[in-house]
Amino acid sequence: MIFKPIFHLISSIQIISNDYSLNPIPKSNEIPQVHSPFPVCSNEMIDLTSETSVLSSVVNETPDDPGGRLHLGGNNLRGSIPKEIFNISTLRRISVSMNQLTGYLPSNFGYGLPNLQELRFDYNNLSGEIPYSISNSSKLTFVDFQGNQFSGLAPNSLGELSFLEDLSLSENNFVANSFELKFITSLTNCRYLQKLSLADNTFNSIIPASVGNLSTSLSHFYCYNCGLHGGIADEVGNLTNSLVLSLFDNQLTGSISKTLGNFQNLQGLDIYGNRVSGSIPDNLCGLENSNTPSINDLLWLNLSSNSLTGFLPLDIGNLKATILLDLSKNRILGIIPASIGDLQNLINLSLAHNRFERSIPESLGKLLNLEALDLSHNNLSSNIPKSLEALQYLTYFDVSFNDLSGEIPSGGPFKNFGSQFFMSNGGLCGDPRFGVPHYPRTKVHKSKRRKVIFRFLYALSGVLALAFFLVLAYLFVRYRRKQVVKEKKDISYATERFSESHLLGTGGFSSVYKGTLKNGEEVAVKVFNLELEGAFKSFDIECEFKALILEYMPNGSLEKWLYSDDYSLDFMQRINIMIDVVDALEYLHHGYSIPVAHCDLKPSNVLLDQDMVSHSSDFGIARLLCNGDSFVQTTTFATLGIITSTPHLLRFGIIAKIPHEISIITTTTLKVWIIKCDVYSYGIMLMKVFTRTKPSSEAFTGDLSLRRWVKDVLPDGITKVMDPKLLNPEEDSFKEKLECLSSIMEVALNCSAKIPVERISMKDVVAYLNKIKIKLLEYFSRSNS
User: Which residues take part in binding ATP (predicted)?
Assistant: First the structure.
């Protein structure tokens, strides 16, 4: 249909409506045939309805509907827009959306439309630039140029439309004339702006800081696929009333600003398809302080296809309204928090192509509305939880390319899944349709008796082997005792009769002396105080002297090296020392079937040998020191012993009987709690070592603590809390050290989580710190080559 220039007959229109009609607009020579009490060429208003598509009546202005409207959307109109339309001064609304109109807008566009409030030119083929004269239509509240071929610069004069509420320039060819999108700055004058869409253009610039000065009423901000680069301005967080923020498919870098947690009503956040790095801010998953505005109304969060690292925040469960969570194709590591099971409204969850470890949380079985779950391409281990059988709406489930084992559940939604969703998991078994080994029940029943016999034989051989090694160990200990110390006078000789000049220190249960054995070996001798009431009741009463001979540590304690001005530790020394400590704790916690709790981890209990290798000393064995629970309740865990290669327990006269309950926690709950106390202490000590700040510092008042101080500055303000001796901005390795320190502090925060069960294990800490060390060594190797 050709857009006929019939509007030269009309100078004032009330309503012309032919929206989405298949009937042709009448030719100008047909108009006089319409029966009307007013002449067609008069200055009165006309009405062209969509039902008849003919001029049927002329309607005067009324108080309820002043001005005129021109609605011709969806009519397949071609050609250019008649210039006469732009001279109808009474027009309030023009809508020619979804046609095939071409041509340019006249340079005097806004002069003849002083009453225009709504302008819809979307989805046509209009080209050229938007005239600066559009600002003369000063009453405009709605402007939509989406889906055309407009080019050049978006005019700053749009910022003079002080009543503007909705502006869409998406899907055009607009550009920016500088590295910064200054056009946004002009829009800060539009105080009523609620929706701004600049998507699908070629700006190739950065988001200016002035974005934070846009209207506080702005609820929708679309700026995706615009060639944006640089970081996400912190000032974006000033748009606290935004409902939707879409910045996907750009080249944005840097980290996700913590200010995004300021949004009070945000429902959708799309930043996928960029180059954003760093960790996910904790406050993006809900704030800890209930008196602070919350982001808990978020319906969808898509951060996929970026370069995010660090751990998934433990507070992820606070996003209780979220229905879509996509964090796929990043480098997020650590565990999947159990709190993710609190997202009861979740429909789509994708954590694929990351570095998640350990097991799939059982709590995922509580996501009863879940329809799609993708955990593929990670390092997940253990089995697939049976709890997932309760997800009756689950239609897509992918755990391929992990390290899962055990039987694949067969009930619930698993009846409909194919083998491709379980591939590349060597340890899985179950129904043959999953493409994994199958173990028939009949075979299990037939071999049941054989398994019982084998288990018995294995247990018997284990007992015999254990007895054999115990005998060997007993003989070896006796031999060593005879070779090193034969009687009490050797210890007395080594310490010059326990002279005060040899005294290294005194504790609640013992005194430590430096001694030199007859073979010239320097040792530390810890002598226990037998006069302490209630101590050592578990030892034989005939014993009059008890001591430990320990390897002597010439470099003293870690505390001396941290807080004394006469000593200093470099970056790699601190990493190596903390890796040594965590190796010792990992052995205590996981090296044997019965875990041992240290209970007194602090820098003063970490000793350094000649080669600056750290040794964790004075680990708590309160059960060795007494038999009563009352002692444990009223006295701190005792300190006794040191983890070295060859500690010797001395007892003269009769060999000491070590109680069965040494460091054994009698209940499972208490055992886990005390082990997690060690994890917490290690996390705090990590912060001490790299910040060189004590938790007892006078700077920490009120709610502020060492952990809160470190947490509040991550990841961008890490330099504010680190020991200045570790970082020199002039060094070539400054950036790499900064990244490593951020990762180390992330590990420290995960160790010191408030809830014990949410703290990571020492095995995980060993893995994380070794990865950080290897990464730093690789950089030094490249820089030296």
Answer: 526
